[in-house]
Fold Anaerobic nitric oxide reductase flavorubredoxin.
Amino acid sequence: MTIHIKNNINWVGQRDWEILDFHGTEYKTTKGTSYNSYLIREQKNVLIDTVDHRFSLQFIQNLEMEIDLDKIDYIVINHAEEDHSGALAALMAKIPNTPIYCTENAIDSITGLHHHPEWNFNIVKTGDSLDIGNGKQLVFIETPMLHWPDSMMTYLTEDAVLFSNDAFGQHYCDERLFNDEVDQIELMDQCLRYYSNILTPFSSLVIAKIHEVLSFNLPVDMIATAHGVVWRDNPTQIIHQYLQWADNYQEDRITIFYDSMSNNTRLMADAIAQGIHDVDPGVSVKVFNVARHDKNDILANVFRSKGILVGSSTMNNVMMPKIAGMLEEITGLRFKNKKAGAFGSYGWNGGAVDRIHTRLTDAGFETTVGLKTKWKPDGKAMRECREHGRQIAKSWALHDLSNVDSISSTLTQYKPVKVAEVKTPTTQASCASTTSSDDKQDMLCTVCNWVYQPVLGEPNQDVQPGTPWCEVPDFFLCPDCGLGKEVFVPIAARKAS
Ligand code: FEO
């Protein structure tokens, strides 16, 4: 089955109604997905991306009904992940000499996944173009880390269609392909879920890349993604939405998530939530049990929140494992501009709250005082939890709450705990404490493996040779993936881990 997109462009992709998991089982797909592949027929015939390897046979059969495969002149692979290049091996078995256009990084990924270094690869860089006849060209734009180092977008001139691959897509499946045809609430929910769970760590890169694309002043009549809808109605709406999400996004929302051995930490969560609502009925408060609720939904709510409260019972003097897993994931997603606090019930030692507080601080959250309750909270403890919520609501308020004093602070005995800092080794060098050997310390970008060498500096960003890492300015960006200093670690630290 094919769907006409515009002029000589057809969708030749694959719908996947049944899929429940992506990236192992880390991303739950609640509305299916699609793998969008496009066939352009001008004087040259071009295939943009393929589909997931599980659908190779179906894809080839479908494509053969549309075109004699020998008549495909070029294949463009915008991104090598197997949901897009998976069917390439089956296709290349039929048309083995067809030129493949992709980034240099993609050759590594495609070869690593398919083991065919002999394929006819043609490296493209940002600004390169390919003439496909009838006055039309494909223009390539590298978009490293959206979503892999190999990613790029392809723009078709004259038709003004941007084939954006993962960017601007969503895991969403509907018989209708265009954005104006589908349920708008479902669509935007899935866009946000996709952005918050997959693209958040690369937000600074998203902004830089979008501004780079906009600087070309190319008209955009459609954005043809690799998952979900084709944006044809007001297509740049999703670009502007991405710019908003990438810019330290937050709403007037607080997310509370916890795990609870004996329901005691859950009781605390409920009371804290009520306390927040007492003081600020306008703030949206969402409460989740990590053992029972969808992880990606929780993370989407964290993304939308101005602050989070994380609770755990203390078990063996540490936090419960599902909370530890969530904190690891939150650390990787590198949320910015958010506040956080820890809470939890304990019997002998409240180590979980201390550890959560430290993990939240290390993950870049602005942490506030925590709250511990010994055993099952009694009436007094529940009032303390509620008052804790009231204090959080006041200190995190985004608007005037000048009338709250009449509502709150009836509990003079309320004493939040000053959470003990659990020291963890730091990976960042500090100028104040550097030694001469620190001055020569090479730093590794943990995202793309680019290495900063003080002896070379980074003259393109006015960092002169001989500049130690601690003197590299905070606005420095990795020249390969565009991420900031926070993703760099000393080479020795990386090797030791
Ligand atoms: Fe849809 Fe990064 O693959």
